[in-house]
Amino acid sequence: MAPLTAPSSPAPADTPMAPLPPSRGYWASALQRFLHDPVAVGAAVVVLLLIGLAVFGPWLAPADPYAASMLKRLKPIGTEGLPLGSDELGRDMLSRLIVGARLSLFIGITPVLCAFCVGSVIGIVAGYAGGLVNTTIMRTVDVFYAFPSVLLAIALSGVLGAGIVNSLISLTIVFIPQIVRVAESVTTQVRNRDYVEAARASGASPFTIVRVHVLGNVLGPIFVYATSLIAVSMILASGLSFLGLGVKPPEPEWGLMLNTLRTAIYAQPWVAALPGLMIFITSITFNILSDGLRSAMDNKG
């Protein structure tokens, strides 16, 4: 006789199912990955502080950045009333560095922003259209790659003349070909995706396909690359001011300050190095931020 076994009780029919975790979108996931990168978050905090200096600099400066005094000329760091010393005309270096953040960041970010807008449009058109349109645009862009960025910026500024506006135009022209190449590359990849082919087969117009299916997939990589160009733009803009092709005296701008203080490098080397230190900190911060954004937006794995 078979042994008796207790019948297994069936699971109640009304047992609630465990809710599925809500799925996060791409941008929410990218933001979470970015916030889990302490180095990138630290760089973002520094960038926000620099932007705060640029916006509120005139109110944060302890002294008038234009007030000169030959009695206070080239005072060392730590002098009473001059925590970061004074420049060759006796102007407060701390105030000039704080106020100079506005102009330095402006001429560093604005050309990249303008190049991002113009270059993205040109690159997306070239990448999606293909054929003769792509060949014409990209061969024209290749002409600019025959010249190093520094020499091209100097040549354009020399032709247009010194000044802030001409510097912005020169740097924008320098960065447009670089962004066009990136935009064309990512658009060419997206153009052959299945969802784009399906939209094309359904009779959607090219403008609709680009607006709905292409832009959302290419603007992220282009923006990340453009962020990495801000550091280059800062250095090029400072170099133009150093050569006398950018900002004109007596405006406080870090590249121009570096130029005017070059004769004081032996008298007060630490004071003379402060504008270069600010350029270095800003450039390396934007580079780190760009790397953090690239890692956060990479959804592979």
Descriptive notes:
The protein is mainly alpha-helical and about 300 residues long. About 70% of the residues lie in helices and about 0% in strands. It has 10 helices and no strands. Helix 8 packs antiparallel against helix 10 (about 270-295). It is elongated, with a radius of gyration of 27 Å. The model is unreliable at about 5-20 (pLDDT under 50).
Question: What descriptors fit this protein?
Answer:
elongated; mainly alpha; 301 residues
Biggest sheet statistics: none
Shape: elongated
CATH third-tier fold name? MetI-like fold
CATH homologous superfamily classification? MetI-like
N-C termini distance = 58 Å
Overall radius of gyration: 27 Å
Task: Give the structural class.
Answer: mainly alpha
Number of strands: 0
Number of helices: 10
| Proportion of beta-strand residues | under 5%
Spans where pLDDT lies below 50 across 5 or more residues:
4-18
